């Protein structure tokens, strides 16, 4: 397939581009900057210049390719207003991509987080949250999946709280960055809440499998580690950075504080069974050993 991808130069996106190219596909990547364009070209992809707000550019990318993988999302988590703006921008982008693909039977693969299921690991059958700081993103993903009834082979890959590679990435990466800045490797609450995780290279394989063969309208879990206690994550970070490990106020994490404090283990049993996906790379706690002091 010739695949249009947004967010193709980030931690996850660069792994997905490499996986697609290694699997015999060709890639057209959206690039907002010269650096992103150079990275895509260096990886062997074609480039279409523009950002998520450039809806005509998105429509043209979807219209001239055999399928779409959407990964791009704004990186400003400084306030609830900034997070809401990121979600609104993504929602408009997904609507434009979806409208372009109606009636084509081509794939549109989008992304979200895994949901929380009180008292147990969430599964692919559990709904995304309809309230809280990321509820708008859930509505956008639901709208995409609904396009299965209009001739789009839609799918959602739900990513865990940390997608990591070489000791960085995801929520664990945010904990590391905050630890470097504050001098404390912190965690909210008592730290017993669990976060699922996956290596970026394993997640990339799942994106390819979903693009190639997933049925329309389904959600899949890119989960390798069902759930590590956040205080165990913070303990590795503290040891690697030689910093004290302590509980800190939930407000330390801004608009993501509520999410950081929630117990969110997740299962990928159905995804593994139906798509034959088997994670093969390092676990989160093992990968965090790559953090450099």
UniProtKB/TrEMBL annotation:
InterPro entries: Epimerase_deHydtase (IPR001509), NAD(P)-bd_dom_sf (IPR036291), NAD(P)-dependent_oxidoreduct (IPR051783). It comes from the Bacteria. Residues 112-131 are annotated as: Disordered. It comes from Flexivirga alba. Residues 3-216 form the NAD-dependent epimerase/dehydratase domain. This is SDR family oxidoreductase.
